[in-house]
Amino acid sequence: MKNLNKGIIGKANTVVDASNTADVVGSGSLKVFATPMMVALMEKAAVNALEDYLEEGETTVGTGINISHVSASPIGIEVNATAEVTDVNGREITFKLSASDSVGLIGEGIHTRFVVNAERFQNKTNSKI
Question: Among 14, 21, 43, 111, which one carries the catalytic annotation?
Fold first, then answer.
């Protein structure tokens, strides 16, 4: 991993459509942006924050997430997620997360990721079967 400092920011966005609503992904019965999809978007923002700081063969894996989903977003609205590095402890990286739509904040939280060797991690995981 290259030198990584607090304050690095990653972003990701999507538009709420019929494929990412609570009723479709199984997290509820309404046609609103699903909480699991918001979490995935927030994680994507964190991954994006780190893309220029990883060495060849490295990747990151999520190891913890604590979020609140504070407002629903309807089909057709754009959702933006931001992940800001708040702490670097060796290979463990902590992020402050937020997500918003055009009306305002829809979610926020804390996320940790761990830098790993991609091939070694995948091989170890595959050895479970």
Answer: 43
